Amino acid sequence: MELAADTQSGEEPTARTDPPTGEGTVFLTVAEVATVMRVSKMTVYRLVHEGVLPAIRVGRSFRMPEHAVHDYLKASFSGTSPRM
After folding, report:
1. Residue 8 C-alpha from the chain's centroid
2. Distance between CA atoms of 44 and 4, rounded to whole angstroms?
3. Which of 5, 10, 23, 69 pairs with 17 at a CA distance of 20 to 30 A?
4. Can you name the residues that pair with 16 across neighbouring β-strands?
5. What is the CA radius of gyration of the chain?
6. For residue 82, how far is the Cα from the chain centroid?
7. What's the pLDDT at 23?
């Protein structure tokens, strides 16, 4: 796992798993998902707690597979329900 660190901005490094050769899964933080979806972090937490958006817990934080976020958005856009 690599750490993407931006030490000049004063933010903590973000843990990301980048696929080495097209394999693996990229995990996003709640803040990253909120940015991608253009919603608040509370909306992302609500989707996770309702079971609509799959997530894993890492310590006290949640991480969502990037493909799950894109699948949720595609299903929402096409008018089908991702909750089934």
Report:
1. 24
2. 22
3. 10
4. 2
5. 14
6. 16
7. 64
